[in-house]
Write a sequence for this structure.
C-alpha cells in the first residue's frame, strides 16, 4: 500500500544496513522532507546523499516504478525537481519531462508495520488503538493533545474567517452568526446559522432600543410567526393569543419596511428536543442578549478570564416566554436562564474560538494565548466521545483536553487516518 510506503519514508523506518539505488549507488536519507498531501510530489525539500553527493529536492513514492508513467509524471514539469523515486517494486527506469533519468530506491514496508496496520483496520472496537492507550507516556499524550487542541482551534478559525468574509468583512456579524449557530446545540445548528445570515443585523440595529421589535424581527425571520410552525393542537390557542397577534402584526410592518423574507419554518427541528431548547426559547434569549448589548466583539477581547466571558453570555427569555415554551400553550413560570452547562459549551464553541480567530486576524498573539488559557479554565465536556476515550484510559482535566479528543475522533479516528496520528505511530512501530 502506497500510504504505508509514505509512512515508512516519513519516519525513516528503513531496513538496518546500507541503502542503494537501483544502479548500486549508496543512499543516505538526511531529511525525508515535508509530506505533501496536495497536488505535486509526495515530499518537498528532502535531503539525500547519493554516493556522497548531497541532493536537495523532492521525493516521489509509488508501489511500482511504472506508476510514474501511469500518473503522467514523465510529462509534468512539476516533477522535474524530483531527486529520488522510491518504490516497493522497481520494474522500469523513470524519466522526467526533460528526459533525465531519476535515481530510484527500492523500499519495502517492514512486516511488523504491515501486520499492525492490518490489525488496526480490521478491529471493530472503537477506537481500534484502545489496547495501546494505557501504555502511552504522559509526555507523549500531553504533546499530542496540545497539537490537537491547536488543530481544532485552527479549524474553527477558518470557519469563522469564511463567515466574516461572507459578511463583508464584519467580524461583529461573524460573532453573532457563530453564536447563533452554537445556540442550536448541534441539532438546530444549521438552521440557526441560516436564520442569522437571513436576519441582516443592520436592519435590526434600527430598532435595537425596542426589545419587542427585536424579538418580532428575530421570530419573524425564523419563520416562527407562521401559524403552521406551531403544532396543530396549539394553533387555535395561538391565534387567540394577544401576544402572538401583536408580534405577527409587528413583524408584517417590519417585513414591509425592510423587504424581509422569512426562512422556511420547516428547517427547525423539534423532535426529541427538551422544551428548554425549543427555537422559540433560544431565539427569545438571543433577542434579550442582543438588546442588552453585552456580547460584542469589543467586550469579548477585553475578557481576561472564563468568568468574565461567562457574564457576557448570561441571558434569559423575555417576559412572555417565562410562562410559555410555544405560542398558545401556557406553562409554569420559569425565567429560563441560560444554564451554566450551556454557557460552558458556548464559551468553548463560540467565545474562545472567536478570541483565537480574531487574534490570528489581527496578528495579536496575546489574544491567541489568552484563548488557550481560558479554554483550560473551562470545565471538561461530557459526551459520548469523551466517555469513549475515558474508557480507553485517557483522562481529561479541562475543556482544552476534551476539544483535543473531539478533534482526534473526528479528524483521525472517523477517517481511519491512523498513519497521521501519533497514537497510530506508537501502535504501528
Amino acid at each position: 500500500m502506497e500510504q504505508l510506503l509514505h509512512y515508512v519514508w516519513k519516519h525513516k523506518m528503513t531496513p538496518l544496513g546500507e541503502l542503494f539505488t537501483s544502479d548500486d549507488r549508496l543512499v543516505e536519507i538526511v531529511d525525508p522532507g515535508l509530506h505533501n498531501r496536495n497536488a505535486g510530489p509526495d515530499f518537498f525539500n528532502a535531503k539525500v546523499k547519493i554516493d556522497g553527493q548531497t541532493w536537495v529536492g523532492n521525493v516521489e513514492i509509488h508501489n511500482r516504478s511504472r506508476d510514474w508513467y501511469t500518473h503522467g509524471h514523465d510529462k509534468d514539469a512539476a516533477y522535474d525537481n524530483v531527486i529520488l523515486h522510491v518504490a516497493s517494486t522497481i520494474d522500469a527506469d523513470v524519466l522526467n519531462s526533460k528526459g533525465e533519468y531519476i535515481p530510484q530506491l527500492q523500499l519495502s514496508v517492514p512486516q511488523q508495520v504491515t501486520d499492525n496496520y492490518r490489525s488496526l483496520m480490521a478491529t471493530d472496537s472503537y477506537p481500534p488503538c484502545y489496547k495501546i492507550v494505557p501504555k502511552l507516556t504522559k509526555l507523549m499524550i500531553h504533546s499530542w493533545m496540545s497539537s490537537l487542541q491547536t488543530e481544532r482551534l485552527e479549524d474553527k478559525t477558518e470557519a469563522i474567517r469564511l463567515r466574516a468574509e461572507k459578511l463583508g468583512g464584519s467580524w461583529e456579524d461573524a460573532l453573532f452568526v457563530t453564536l447563533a449557530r452554537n445556540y442550536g446545540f448541534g441539532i438546530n445548528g444549521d438552521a440557526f446559522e441560516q436564520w442569522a445570515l437571513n436576519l441582516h443585523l443592520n436592519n435590526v440595529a434600527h430598532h435595537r432600543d425596542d426589545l419587542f421589535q427585536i424579538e418580532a424581527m428575530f421570530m419573524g425571520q425564523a419563520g416562527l410567526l407562521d401559524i403552521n410552525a406551531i403544532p396543530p393542537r396549539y394553533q387555535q390557542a395561538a391565534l387567540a393569543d394577544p401576544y402572538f397577534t401583536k408580534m405577527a402584526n409587528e413583524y408584517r410592518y417590519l417585513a414591509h419596511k425592510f423587504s424581509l423574507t422569512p426562512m422556511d419554518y420547516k428547517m427547525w427541528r423539534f423532535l426529541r428536543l427538551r422544551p428548554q431548547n425549543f427555537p422559540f426559547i433560544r431565539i427569545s434569549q438571543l433577542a434579550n442578549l442582543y438588546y442588552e448589548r453585552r456580547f460584542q466583539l469589543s467586550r469579548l477581547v477585553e475578557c481576561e478570564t472564563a468568568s468574565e466571558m461567562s457574564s457576557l453570555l448570561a441571558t434569559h427569555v423575555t417576559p412572555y416566554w417565562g410562562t410559555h415554551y410555544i405560542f398558545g400553550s401556557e406553562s409554569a413560570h420559569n425565567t429560563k436562564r441560560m444554564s451554566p452547562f450551556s454557557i460552558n459549551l458556548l464559551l468553548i464553541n463560540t467565545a474562545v474560538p472567536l478570541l483565537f480567530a480574531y487574534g490570528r486576524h489581527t496578528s495579536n498573539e496575546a489574544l491567541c494565548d489568552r484563548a488557550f488559557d481560558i479554554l483550560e479554565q473551562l470545565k471538561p465536556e461530557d459526551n459520548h466521545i469523551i466517555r469513549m476515550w475515558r474508557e480507553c484510559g485517557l483522562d481529561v482535566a479541562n475543556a482544552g483536553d476534551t476539544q483535543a479528543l473531539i478533534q482526534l475522533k473526528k479528524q483521525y479516528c472517523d477517517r481511519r487516518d491512523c498513519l497521521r496520528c501519533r497514537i497510530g505511530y506508537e501502535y504501528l512501530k
Notes: The first helix runs from residue 2 to 10. The two ends are 16 Å apart (CA to CA).
